[in-house]
Amino acid sequence: MSKKQVWVFIENTSKGIADVSKELLSKGKDLAETLQGEVCAIHLGYNIKASAQELFDLHCDKVYSIDHKELKDFRALPYTTNIVNAIKKYSPYIVLFGASFTGRELGPRIASAVKCGLTADCTELKIGDFDSKPDKKVYQDLLLQIRPAFGGNIIATIVNPLMHPQMATVRQGVMKMREPLKKGSGKGEVITIEAEIKNEDLVLEVIEKIQEEKKVDLTGAQIVVAGGMGVGGKENFELIKELAQVLGGEVGATRAVVDAGWIHKDHQVGQTGTTVRPKLYIACGISGSIQHMAGMQESKQIISINTDANAPAMSIAHYKIVGDLKKIIPMMIKAYKEKA
Which class in CATH covers the domain with range 223-339? Predict the structure, then answer.
């Protein structure tokens, strides 16, 4: 009996393999080990042979490589055709995509073509059993696809017991990356698949690519200073920005603050925003909803500033400061500048 395979779609960027793909390979390895199977990359592009070794160093067991000049730039139609062909031929058990613009466009097309389910924007993945009460049957070793629902107010677990492969898109930053193997030491198998290029799939032509770097990099930030509704208003949020600038960090915010229009959604931390794991997270005026704490609780050091000593965010903080942030933050800024 062949091993169950967990496939990860490898997304290409101007800097190489996308971070979300690297994160999914780590999670895919965890899932594959539970299934006693293999984690495999499905990689499309042009002149991508050299990237196989990097994928092996990222704990990949097999690389399904589809190399063609017409696949150099992402276009939904040719990518869909070739991935669907590969899925039908090799029958993976699970297929994962990053919840990026690329993954969100590609995933539904492929799920529709192979007639399987797709869960979007997952924040956790596990292998487990499902007891189907209507037909009194227990389905074993299913992919438990976990994601926030109803505006983040509940956490839903979704399973696809009857339709395979089981497919999901996963948010960047929510899966912890394994330490890569020593460069060049990873071992695996490359399976070359001949590309199918149909004229009807080339109706879209890439004339020019214009890429703009993200202005907010919460995922990669080592220091995040975040504000909640306890900040008191948009004008007071300037204190949060000033402290972040002084410390060389990024500005974060709760969903309530974003909804109030105090700051752009790119700064939102939590299950409905970005998951962060900085060395230092300073929570200012944040009471600590479950959804927000799920997005920052793995920070190495957490400082919570709040007038309420019993706020939920205080319970997970390593250092707690009870008081008015409008007085405390200027003192922190002054002390840091004097020390610097």
Answer: alpha beta
